[in-house]
Amino acid sequence: MTAVDGERQRVLVVEDDESMAALVEEELGDEGYDVQVVFNGSDALAAISERAPDVVILDINMPGKDGIETLNDIVGERGSLPVILHTAYSAYKDNYMTWAAAEYVVKSAAGGFRELKDAVARAVSAAE
Known about the structure:
It is a single chain. By secondary structure, this protein is α/β, with parallel strands linked by helices. It is 38% helix and 21% strand. The strands form two sheets. Strands 4-3-5-6-7 form a five-stranded parallel β-sheet, with helices on both faces. It has a two-stranded antiparallel sheet with strand order 1-2. Helix 2 runs parallel beside helix 3. The N and C termini lie close together (11 Å).
């Protein structure tokens, strides 16, 4: 379910690759989520401060403030906000600094988004 009290649940996508960001936005929009996209960690923190989403999808490998730094900032400021790491690199899964994330989803080479959609649904359900 993607609505609470008639309001669509908000997902913040933090992804520096504009094509990937557009795909994630479309896929989650089709699922009924209200999706906001930003392209770097600093803008993500500003967006969260302005209007907190229900869940954050966060790329790791980004220029400037990377996803791990951004995750640590989010956890420090809003520890209960679920963050899903969405990255092309499975090696980060073993990095203890990523363990604060609610979920860790490796981007699919085949372009499938089922695992990401399921992770968002679980994160939203857990937050209700």
